[in-house]
Amino acid sequence: MAIIKEVRGFTPIFGQNIYLADNAVVLGDVQMGDDCSVWFNAIVRGDVNQIRIGNKVNIQDNAVLHCTYQKAALTIGNNVSIGHSAIVHGCTLEDNVLVGMGAIVMDHAYVEKNSIIAAGAIVLENTRVEAGCIYAGIPAKKVKEVSQEQFEGTISRIANNYVMYAGWLK
């Protein structure tokens, strides 16, 4: 059973149709919308600041979501996929964002809607990722715009598939 812990008087709040893997950890000031999933070994750590997560968000295996005490909360919109082993820390991700496997998004970064952070990319503090663009590299830079095929075949497909995958394990 997933570890769900109260910290500093805050207990995580979950929407409907949530899947939490047996060894997922969610603690503290976390609010999560409907149709979300937190996968194996992933942690959503709202111990030092608030984490707000929209609907249909998947947090894949080994991902870490955290904040900075009194400085940087974490806000995630709807229809967002956080890839395996990604680190998302004290930033904002708007709707329809894909954070690729092993990517890192740092404090006060702002990722606008319909964007992709490529696998292994590092989005530095205070970076603004333009809507509808792909950012890659270290540090992450704009490499091109997201095509309609990439939006439908990657961003939307992955978010929808993870709702389905979660259903297999419930």
What gyration radius follows from the Cα positions, in whole Å?
15 Å
Estimated share of beta-strand residues: 35-45%
Number of strands: 20
Structural class: mainly beta
What is the N-to-C order of secondary-structure elements (H for helix, E for strand)? EEEEEEEEEEEEEEEEEEEEH
Distance between termini?
12 Å
State the major sheet.
12 strands, parallel
Helix coverage percent of residues?
A: 10-25%
Residue stretches low in confidence (pLDDT < 50, at least 5 long) are none
| Mean pLDDT level | 97
Counting DSSP H or I runs of 4 or more residues, the number of helices is: 1
Shape: globular
Question: What would you say this structure looks like, in words?
Answer:
Helices cover 13% and strands 39% of the residues. By secondary structure, it is mainly beta. The strands form two sheets. Strands 1, 2, 4, 6, 8, 9, 11, 12, 14, 15, 17 and 18 form a twelve-stranded parallel beta sheet that branches. A hairpin with a 4-residue loop joins strand 19 and strand 20. The longest helix is centred in the last third of the chain and has 22 residues. It is globular, with a radius of gyration of 15 Å. The relative contact order is 0.13.
